[in-house]
Amino acid sequence: MLKPYPNTFSFAPGIAAKVGVSIEQLCAHAGVPVSNAWHTDEFFRIWLAAEAQISDRAAGLRFGAEGLARGYGVAAIVALHAPDLGQALVALSRYKRLTCPELVEVEVAHGEAAVRYRWLQATGPVPRLLVDTTMASLRELVRRGTAGQIAPIRLELARPVMDGEMLHQHFGCPIVFEAAHDQMVFAQAALATPFVTADGGAFAHVLQGLESRLDSGEGYAALLGQIRVAIARQLSEGRPSTVAAIARRLGLSSRTLQRRLRDSATSFQQQLDAVRRITACRLLANTPFDPIAVALLLGYTEPNSFARVFRHWEHTTPQRWREQHAAQRLAPPAPSGQHHE
């Protein structure tokens, strides 16, 4: 029987202390309950609260560079013992989903290998501090594994131009701002670079244990992450999101896709609805598009159909949801001693 997919994130140990406040105080500033696991939007709010407490713009770069040495993240530690960079990225992508709804996507094309982090349930932009930490952690993994032989050929960031010189100094490569995605790009040939930290015996032993966890149904299913990304791309291109269309994107037959979805105890319609819901909230929260435009972007031919299903999802209309979300973002942070239930 399949185990529930992890739909929550935990906050890296030690970061709250580095900010100079307790995790309880950070949660209070973020307006989220004190816990050891948060849904994506709550997790982002904690990082935004941490960002607001730190004046040092390089803090995220330090957090990421130090995290590997402190043993944060099972997937990254396993990747460090892989035979080469290519297999390290495969391990990072495959085992990251055991702990949270985040997809590490490695796309090889035109002589380049792009490593992209997709937050599968995010309705808003990824906090700057979190992006810096994530990318610095990846940079440190590659630096340590290859003994400094490999560096990225560029770093692409979705944010507007800011901190360009600082980022260039840290990552040692050109920085591209206002990109479509946050991603680190390497030369494709770099994937074959051996890791000096490789430990074949330990790597094989740990992989056996992690594979058994995946085989038992633990973790966020890779197929579901790939399907959601494919649906999102299909919607962004204005193309119909049908079973046949998504199956073609994934190189599968419609029948095979349907069977694998049944094996994962879900359906294509459930995955389509999930992507539409997340995308609708993201568009309403972060763009000026009116609800009719959002409906069309999500593939609804009738705006009333979108309004009806949105009310089912969020128990309010798209316009009221937008107004409520805007009011929450403009609200001042709660006093650090106040806890939110």
Q: Can you describe what's shown?
A:
The protein is an alpha+beta fold and about 350 residues long. It has 2 domains: about 55-210, H-NOX domain; about 220-330, Homeodomain-like (Arc Repressor Mutant, subunit A). Helix content is about 55%, strand content about 10%. The protein is built from 16 helices and 5 strands. It has helices at about 15-20, 25-30, 40-55, 60-65, 75-80, 85-95, 130-145, 165-170, 200-215, 220-235, 245-250, 255-265, 270-285, 290-295, 305-315, 320-330; strands at about 100-110, 110-120, 155, 175, 185. Strands 1-2-5-3-4 form a 5-stranded mixed β-sheet. Strand 1 and strand 2 form a beta hairpin. The radius of gyration is 21 Å and the shape is globular. It starts with 14 loop residues before the first helix and ends in an 11-residue tail after the last helix. Residues about 1-5 and about 330-340 have low confidence and may be disordered.
Topology:
Layout: H1 15-19, H2 23-30, H3 40-53, H4 59-67, H5 74-80, H6 85-96, E1 102-109, E2 112-119, H7 128-145, E3 154-156, H8 164-171, E4 175-176, E5 183-187, H9 200-215, H10 222-236, H11 243-250, H12 254-263, H13 268-286, H14 291-297, H15 303-314, H16 318-330
Parallel strand pairs: 3-4
Antiparallel strand pairs: 1-2, 2-5, 3-5
Quick structural summary:
The chain has 341 residues and is α+β, with helices and mostly antiparallel strands.
Radius of gyration: 21 Å
CATH class of the largest domain: Alpha Beta
> What amount of the residues lies in strands?
5-15%
The shape is: globular
Task: Summarize the biggest pleated sheet.
Answer: 5 strands, mixed
- Please state the structural category: alpha+beta
What is the distance, rounded to the nearest whole angstrom, between the alpha carbons of the first and last residues? 33 Å
Low-confidence stretches: 1-5, 332-341
Instruction: Give the strand order, joined by hyphens, for the main sheet.
Output: 1-2-5-3-4
Query: Number of helical segments?
Result: 16
CATH architecture of the largest domain: Alpha-Beta Complex
* Whole-number total of structural domains: 2
Helix-residue proportion:
40-55%
Q: What is the CATH topology classification name of the largest domain?
A: H-NOX domain
Mean pLDDT: 86
Number of strands: 5
Order of helices and strands: HHHHHHEEHEHEEHHHHHHHH
Keywords: DNA-binding, Transcription, Transcription regulation
Domain HTH araC/xylS-type: 225-324
Protein name: HTH-type transcriptional regulator VirS
Organism: Amantichitinum ursilacus
